[in-house]
Amino acid sequence: MNRDECWDTVDVSTHSDTEAETKMDGDQFVCESFSDKLYVPKRSFRKYVKPWHVALCVAVIIIIIIIIATTATKKGNIANKDKQAAEYVSSGVIISDGYSLVRYDPKDKSTKRILRTDKIIGSFDLYKDTTFWSEPNASKIVSVNNENGDVAYKNAEVIFDNPRFKVQAMEVDHFTEKLYAIDKTTGTAIVIDLKTKQYGILLTDLKQPHDILLDATKGLMFILQPTESILRLNMDGTSLIELIRYSKYISAMTLDHKNKMIYWINDYNTILRSDYLGLNRAHIFKDQIFIISLTVSDDQLFWLWPSNGVHNATLWSCRIQTNDTTCQSHQIQSIGLANATSVKSLSHRGNFDVSNPCIRHKNICQHMCLLSSEFNAGRSCACHVGWESRSDPRSCQPVKEFLLYVLGSTVRGRILNFQKDTFTEVFFPTALNTKSLNKKGTVDFDYDPHNDVFYVSDDVHVYQMNLRHPSNQTILLTASSFHYIEDLAFDWLSMNLYYSNCSKFSNNTHFLHAMNVRETNKFKRTVRSFTYRDGFGLKGCPYGTVIDASEGNVFFSAEESFFRSIYRTTLNGTRLKMDSKNIDYVHQYRILAIDHEEKRFYWIHRSGLETRIRNVGFDGTDENYVHVMTVSNARTISVYKDWMFLSNDLSIWRGNKATGKDFQRVIPRSGSDLSEPVSAIKIVDLTLRAPDDKNSCGKNNGGCEQFCYASPKKTCGCVDDRNLRDNGHCY
Predict the structure, then answer these.
(1) Residue 132 near residue 159 (C-beta atoms within 8 A)
(2) In what order do the strands lie in the sheet with 93-96?
(3) Percent of the chain at pLDDT above 90?
(4) d(Cα 186, Cα 206) in Å, to the nearest integer?
(5) For residue 493, which of 290, 337, 349, 731 sits 20 to 30 Å off, Cα-Cα?
(6) Buried b / exposed e across 688-702, counting CB within 10 Å, b at 16+?
(7) DSSP letter assigned to residue 676
(8) Does the 92-286 domain belong in CATH 3.30.70.100?
(9) Pairing relation of β-strands 444-448 and 387-389?
């Protein structure tokens, strides 16, 4: 038997490779165990391995090789692209001429247009191969890829859009991929997360900020207030100091990131510098022409002359050194731009190797990780607008309570954590359009927190608008020609808005009106009317109105023949009674406040160098008073939990409601007084809401056709010229 025949005798389905082998016995092969042999005969190989098996294996191997090669090529391309992007944004300067951005390379004097658009470019910045920009005084920030070249504004990707924020300047933090922007009108700074497009309100109360700069390697931010100063603060908004102050005008600033110096222009023509501490100040250069913009790239200082109608805009440069205060080797750079308006350096944009604490502690913050000083671990966490930090500052929760107030002609909302100086705003500072305030010195307002509707009045109109969601201010009602609107108070259970309709003549009738804002028709009715000949003898119009919705009472003050008093009536106008008389106050003061927890109402009894506050239970008993020595000329009051809030013309204070002690100024917390008067203050508690099953007016207006009053017992009402049926309908 030959060797192949020996293999053929093995039943491969029942025998293993140890059951047979061959050996030579003379000229014959003898089948023996397989265990000692390595020989595999050709016939056996053909028997177990088919040709298509081999083809399949070869194909798989080829596919694997192709995948590996493709992946390696792709990674190489991506790495090369990132490297090119880093190199691109780390050299040269960018010049704006209004409708386009041009990159100028001072090494080879070359220029390259990277963006052309159909809208004027107001402010801009670059991040890798992307340009962010906005129109002058616009609410929208857009981004475009620089490879697109020409792009229409409407085709650019929208990064941010809010009509209550007007972009003055912007700067990108290349480490954390956040965009910082400022609004000159409202003095607000925001931070936008470029990955999620969510944002937080970093700061308010800046004084007409003009520019913002970042040094992410140090976690520092610089804000230019032209008529005031240059501020330095951490990029999370903390540790704000006035770095540079000048009594006239600071027109521009820039940073030398390499040497950690700041350059600025006094009076449009003098360039100065200092270090980041404001020390080692030096006069660098004084020009004869206005300088509109400047920047530092490597060891060169660039500044821009504007176009004057005869000559094009001119870019100048000189060499600078940290140990030399002179500007050497002045040169005119040929840029070929007739109307250049600003210049920005790219020299610091490619420094991605510096340690990034937000990367080291990835996902440590629920919302946003921001760079900060080294003393704060180099980073801190921040929350999006409408959210606030929990006790663990790394996590966030929706704002449930806040201080609502009107400052000048702007309405603002601040969280009640007064230890925080940043990310305290609940919504954007919102401008009010009040046309006439001849009859009163301040605006009247109230707020429906559950539907986010803000009601505000001037002499003639009552307006409504949203605060947490952008909307236009619209007219809700208008006073008649012989009356003016004096006050506002909102019943959040019955959805009725109360207001005083005051006669322009002292011997005519005044009205306390109510409007049902729940219904589309906005029904109005008279709650009470007051004339000089009434038994109560009200000469003045009801004023300082506040509502206790849970008990069903309306409190207000009014002038009588010889003194001023506080009254109450039910929500539907019945049971008018006097609660206190001989109140000493000035007409425009908001002297009343409700303590919902302890069911008491407070009022400012006297106000001057010493403020006296009285309070009494809803049943008229247990009257107390406290002296507040800290706050003079108090004009508005609000009570919440253990605290009493008072405001005078230029500040807001908080103290112990029971003792009148421990009052501290909370707005502003530091520095000088507010520059505009505080009209009124109100604490908004979003948790103060009755469940629908316990609110008798909550569903279908309580079955009432026009007016529903939820407490003290549900009743229906009709407009003045209609009568009420038993089924709640009017005829």
Answers:
(1) yes
(2) 150-151, 110-117, 100-105, 93-96, 342-345
(3) 44
(4) 8
(5) 731
(6) bebeeeebbbbeebb
(7) S
(8) no
(9) unpaired
Q: How far apart are CA 425 and CA 399, in angstroms?
A: 10
Stretch(es) of the chain classified as CATH 2.120.10.30: 92-286
The 3-state DSSP composition of the chain as helix, strand, coil percent (nearest 5) reads 10, 45, 45
Rounded Cα distance between 269 and 525, Å, is: 65
Contacts of 15 (CB under 8 A, 6+ apart): none
Phi then psi for 522, rounded to 5 degrees? 55, 60
| Opening angle at CA 125, ends 123 and 130, nearest 5 | 125
3-state secondary structure of 90: coil
What pLDDT sits at residue 434? 79
pTM as predicted: 0.83
SS3 375: helix
Residue 203 near residue 237 (C-beta atoms within 8 A): yes
- Name the band, by pLDDT with cuts 50, 70 and 90, for residue 541: confident
What is the token pair recorded at 21?
């082998």
Reference 213, options 264, 142, 162; nearest CA is: 264
> β-pairing, 150-151 with 110-117?
parallel
Torsion angle defined by CA atoms of residues 402, 406, 409 and 411, in that order, rounded to the nearest 10 degrees:
20
Rg (CA), the chain: 38
Token output for 304: 């821009």
The one-character DSSP state at 654 is: E
Between CA 183 and CA 166 the distance in angstroms is: 5
Q: Which of 323, 317, 704 minimizes the C-alpha distance to 494?
A: 704
Do the beta carbons of residue 272 and residue 282 sit within 8 Å? yes
What tokens were used for 628?
Answer: 């507040």
Which pair of structure tokens corresponds to residue 592?
């009343």
